[in-house]
């Protein structure tokens, strides 16, 4: 496992300082996290980025992030609201062929509070900005998006309910979303018998059952899977394809409108005007969300994030699929979009997905000190 090189103590202290001023409870999250839960929340495709730990009990993994551990700790505490600060190491498998640290320090804050969401979002994005800036870089940009804006736009298209739900789930995965859009732009394929019987059998089972069947077939046949794909990922992709083939599809016009929406990018206020125009008359949900964005941008600027460094992208999302509102990343021109310096967003719906009986707003941010440091290798 490749470690991220250490940074000077005084630089780390400067990057961490804005979080220490936030008056939050210090969180010491367990390094081992339940694998099944994280895959349920983030998607089976995240498995290849996780360090899986085998033991006598349920499968576990080294913590890839602190968001889920923080919310679980808050729910278990019984507190009606709370803020949690963390500073510790996270662990993620580097993409194949990429020379990247797999164990690295991460500093962040998660806030579970019932308050003005637009101002709370701005506070978190500004906190990430100030912390990232403390590392000394002068090439930073604050990129923002909004999962709820995409959801409201899709709602306005009048699609079948299963298709609408599927599109909203796909927004965190460019590959899945592109599958949906591409399916509308080509003729429906004729049924194929090649390999169809196994696919049909697996798609009729739950994913857990299908994984067991596929692994048993491999064992009986003496087959060793190649290419790095486990049974879970293969079954998950087969299920995606089966559901896509059997479900309502977008029309070419609807697909075109979604592509127009996703293509909107640039100066935030100009982008929001384009989205409102594309949504058309009667898009009250879109108008309300855009009104919140006007307040959010003003609050961000007041908190020290320069307007000229802000960018908006309607297609922007974050890899973890539990974000359901505003998302943001602080990016360095030197490091590129694949290595954000900081990031975060809103995930109100995660309370229910973790089985909480009551919920409040949930928003957070994190910073990678090793990337924020100006002297770090590009």
Structure, explained:
With 378 residues, this protein is α+β, with helices and mostly antiparallel strands. Among the domains are: 9-151 and 314-372, Bira Bifunctional Protein, Domain 2 (BirA Bifunctional Protein, domain 2); 196-246, no CATH class. It contains 15 helices and twelve strands. The protein has a nine-stranded mixed β-sheet, sandwiched between helices. The protein is globular.
Tell me, what is the CATH class of one domain?
Alpha Beta
- Any idea what the CATH architecture of one domain is? 2-Layer Sandwich
So what's the overall shape?
Answer: globular
Return the CATH topology of one domain.
BirA Bifunctional Protein, domain 2
**Strand arrangement across the biggest beta sheet:** 1-5-6-12-11-10-7-9-8
Oligomer: single chain
Low-confidence stretches are 190-195
How far is the first residue's CA from the last residue's CA?
Answer: 20 Å
Q: What percent of the residues sit in helical stretches (DSSP H or I)?
A: 40-55%
Mean pLDDT: 86
Strand content: 15-25%
- Number of helical elements: 15
Largest sheet: 9 strands, mixed
Report the order of strands and helices.
HEEHEEHEEHEHHHHHHHEHHEEEHEH
Can you identify the CATH superfamily of one domain?
A: Bira Bifunctional Protein, Domain 2
Secondary-structure content class: alpha+beta
Task: Work out the number of β strands.
Answer: 12
What integer value in Å does the Rg equal?
22 Å
